[in-house]
Amino acid sequence: MAKKLKGEYFYLTANDLKTGSVVYYSKNNWSSDLTNAVKISRDNLAIYEQIAQNHEKECLIVSPFFVELDEGGEIRKMRDKIREKGITFKLNN
Amino acid sequence: MYKYTEQDKKIVKNRTKEFKFQVERRINGDLTEEEFKPLRLMNGLYLQLHAYMLRVAIPYGELSDIQLNKLAEIADKYDKGYGHFTTRQNIQFNWPKLLDVPDILSELAEVEMHAIQTSGNCIRNVSCDHLAGINSEEVEDPRPWCEIIRKWSTFHPEFSFLPRKFKIAVTGSEKDRAAIKVHDIGLKIVKKLGTIGFEVFVGGGQGRSPYVAKKINDFLEKKDLLNYLEAILSVYNELGRRDNIYKARIKILVNELGQEKIKELVDEKFEELSDKSLELNQNEINNIFNFFKLPIEKKTNSKVPIHSDKEYNHWLQQNVINHKIRGHSIVVISLKPPGKPPGDATSSQMRELSKISKDFSYGEIRVTHEQNLILPHILNSNLYELWSRLKKLGLSTPNFGLITDTICCPGLDYCALATARSIPISQKISNHFKEYSVQEKIGDLKIKISGCINACGHHHVGNIGILGLDKNGEESYQITLGGSATEKASIGQIVGPSFSTENLIPAIERILKTYEENKKKNEDFLSAFNRLGIDKFKEDLYK
Fold it and tell me: Residue ranges per domain, chain A?
């Protein structure tokens, strides 16, 4: 999970197992609100990887991974930005 | 239209119950995600970028008004009020909750629908010419053959775990509207010496290694269709690569072995199936054909209403096709209004279209692989009233076959595999070229847009193909020219270095200028490209 990551800080994210919603790991819980997300330093990745594995086993989440942050603390990749903000166009309805 | 037999109903009902139990076991922790994933995929359930996505099968793209109304209900009750029609003539819901999926499948089963074999390494939904049975140049209606293949392939025990997914398309016409030559198997119904049979093509496909299919049989007798398909699938199942996902499709096998060798292997296997247990008898064939009788039989002198409304006349010119039965028309409902996501329909549009199809088209509606809808049987005298109702729904855009009638995959806005966005590109194109007079002047032109090399947006066979790439974190778009998914199928050629989002429309404008300056009278874009060659376009584009 933590292999080949760029940068020094990360968020831990996943999808809620039952609903599929995008969630971020916050203090002791998972939240759909990024503002509550724990900023994880590279040194602590293993600890949070273990948390993700435990919560997968407990059937809380699915497909966990770390989101890379840039020097300014913003999400680095466009894919992760879209995943956080939602689709980039107005829906038909 | 086909109606489920008791056996069909039982199969779908049992599958729904089975999946409900599997979801319960997943949520209780009795199944890990690794164990559950292949089970959910067999039921069309993916986990995408933002949420789960459920792909519902629309066999050969044919829907009843009741089914369409149910899809609208599902969109409202379990999703965000819309659905997305795909290039496999299916529909996708982008936001269902895992907990709700068993209920969705149960509701679908009530109207003879399901999500079986819309994913996984099995034989997928068989696709078909959207003008099947209603165009006058057809040898025979391909829909019954699609149904015969569907029955054979559903839960086929030997072909549920193929090396990769497997797609079959069938057409009954010389003019190919089903893109059969970019399918794993393409079947073309032909008539030779008074007898109807099939030409068989194998090994076509897109993705990172695009190929046009090779013909391996000039004339297959009808009775032998399933034995022959069984032979092709058996050869593929045995020899197709399972060690490398990128080399696992039958197209790689066909192109490694060559046309003659694959034909030889299939013929040998076909001979081996000497008991011919799948041989079709005429009664079986007739029984299936009976489901597909046209709801109209009599020719009429019904006339197309004359009105001065310019938009109505543009729509008549562009989106209305002659039906094979005089006095009737086929109407294409474009799901590409300016600035809207291609292929999307809201629940209110679907609900109203369900009523419209009941009122005007004998309750029948079809999905095209180019992400539009078809009302197949419209009495000519109803055309103005129909247009008025479609206009109120925002579904009267007269752009069928024109530059804004793009095929487009969901791209990075939805898809976990995509490398760039595709829907916003389509929106830019449809806004930029929205004037009918501009589109009409350009003429027939197919733009197809994919958000990654997997080519779900069919960019390889676009007259202008657009492939979204990620270049050091920035989206860029590679252009291919000269692709075609018709009977003269061809893979587009890369024109040169890719373009930024901002420079893409000017690049398309430049390509169109080259076409405009060099075309002969009445020469369409593809013909002009084939005559001029890529160097001319390249030279103009990058000078």
Answer: 9-70
